[in-house]
Design a protein that fits this description.
Blueprint (H helix, E strand, L loop, with lengths): L5 H14 L1 H19 L9 E6 L2 H18 L14 E7 L2 H14 L1 E7 H6 L10 E6 L18 E7 H14 L6 H37 L11 H11 L7 H14 L4 H22 L7 H12 L10 H12 L2
Length: 335
Amino acid sequence: MPSLDFETEKQRFINYTSDNLELLRNAESSFSTLIRSLLATSSELSASTVTSRVKGIEECINKFSRKYQSKLEEEKKEYEINDYITDLIGIRIICLYEKNIQEIGKILMDNLCLIDSTDKSKLLEQTESSFGYKGLHLDLKLDSTREIMPEYSIYKDISFEVQIRTIIQDAWSVLDHKIKYKKSIPHVLKRRINSLAALFETADREFFSIREETEKLEKITKEEIITNKNEVLNVFHFEKIVELYFPEFHFSSRKVDALVDEILNQEKITVVNFKKMIKENITTVTNYEKFLKGQHVLTPYTIIRHTLYCGNKKAFSRILYEYQRKAFDTWLEQQ
């Protein structure tokens, strides 16, 4: 039964968590696995990091004392500490972009039972003087469908908190926590912290904006017909052209990015000239590959390098290693 005796309720909470520690840890593992499986339905959301923990007893009691005890005792309202610790089991989801927060929140609310939600972003945006990390906090429990399943039924009365943040919001929360936790911040320093918070928020939005613009550029590049003969080669043009010659090969985005940078550092080649150079010289290079008869394997990347060198030896003299260049030149002289 609830009471107003803190020591009694404290001991009751200690007994509850101690007696049910294994159950709570198993529930933590089960809930985390469930959330990962829900996020796996989206390739972007599945890239999110999901971590979890069972909160320490002392930490829970200190939180109750700090947030609720005084008010409850002032109102002479009887309590049980466990009713006020919604994050005894806590799960944190670190996603890539701000828009993912609401997407993940919707998936969780559609598949689990929502007890309460707190949108930290909206709360902070309503007050200019506030500072801190943003994100979405959800208090959840199993929905009516899952709580009768054999693998979940034992956890049907256990609630848990989910915190959803972006990578940048999480980084900010860690740094912010270290700076001001349990400390009074002077006004002049508070302004500097607010400035930092704004920079983190700008970075969050810029990463997403760059991603959107990159995807838009990729789509346009793949669909357009090049009309500007002076348009300089980019990674999307490169992929579109070379895939015609190596349709079954998977080009790594990281390697393509590095190779295009290397090409442009040697010659600001246009899309039209790159396409022409590949078309005019690739047969020569594939014949050279046959001549090697497996002595040296030429990957598609190496074939493209040879093709560029073959097309313009002066501009692309450094696109091949010296031993590759000498061997290729010797073969070319014999043709």
